[in-house]
Amino acid sequence: MPGFFDGLTFWMRGWRLLLGHSSLITLAIIPFLIAVSVGGLATYVLFTNLSIWVTGFVSWMIGTSAGIWVQLAYYPLLIGTGIVFFIGSIFVGYVAHVILAIPFYSLLAERALAVLGLKPESPFDFKAWARNSLRMFRISAVKGILFLTLGVILFVLSFIPIVNVVAVVGTLMIVSFDLLDYSLESLSYGLRQRFAFMLKRRKMWFGMACGLGLTLFIPGLTFVVAPGAVVGGAILLKEAHGSSTTP
Length: 247
What we know:
Layout: H1 4-8, H2 10-19, H3 22-62, H4 68-115, H5 126-157, H6 163-186, H7 191-200, H8 202-214, H9 221-224, H10 226-240
Helix pairs in contact: 2-10, 3-4, 4-5, 4-6, 4-10, 5-6, 6-8, 6-10
């Protein structure tokens, strides 16, 4: 059974498999470009406007004539608001880019599972791909409501010092679940089966969240690694099925 370290390195192993198979890297190009665009836009908007937003908020709250009180309030609020908006940008940006990339990630996961031997190789069928993509949209809508509700709770918690660290971890675990879910969907797991699968492998799941957490040190990288993370999810699923030949 895959553990913490397997989860920690999942997106790196996914990219290694991607780069070794031209059929997979071709499928990853479009969602990769979508991820780069969304990640870059979210990062640009956040870092170019944060100080302006904080300055306006401080001025509105205590006035511009408060002198030293403005300075005392500005920097703690800048840091705190930065954390809050950072969490929000991860969640909202990820959801936005996934909505655009669902058909490509679905097909990428299916092909990765075929390469790994968990699914028979089959020629591309546009009708089957379109049906599967529509099904993924419907399932993602249900899952999105659940995750959005949890995301709102995490966003509120992010305003509380120390607790905001827990909110970041919670957000990353939501994203980790979603990345592995493409492979679970491809193997026709039901929604309850998917949650049961992840809860049974909590160490792996937490490792995945930590692995994605490492990407936060470079703004926008979380979105860029997503195609490799989808393939990495397929690798973890193969390992969970007990194969000894997983890359």
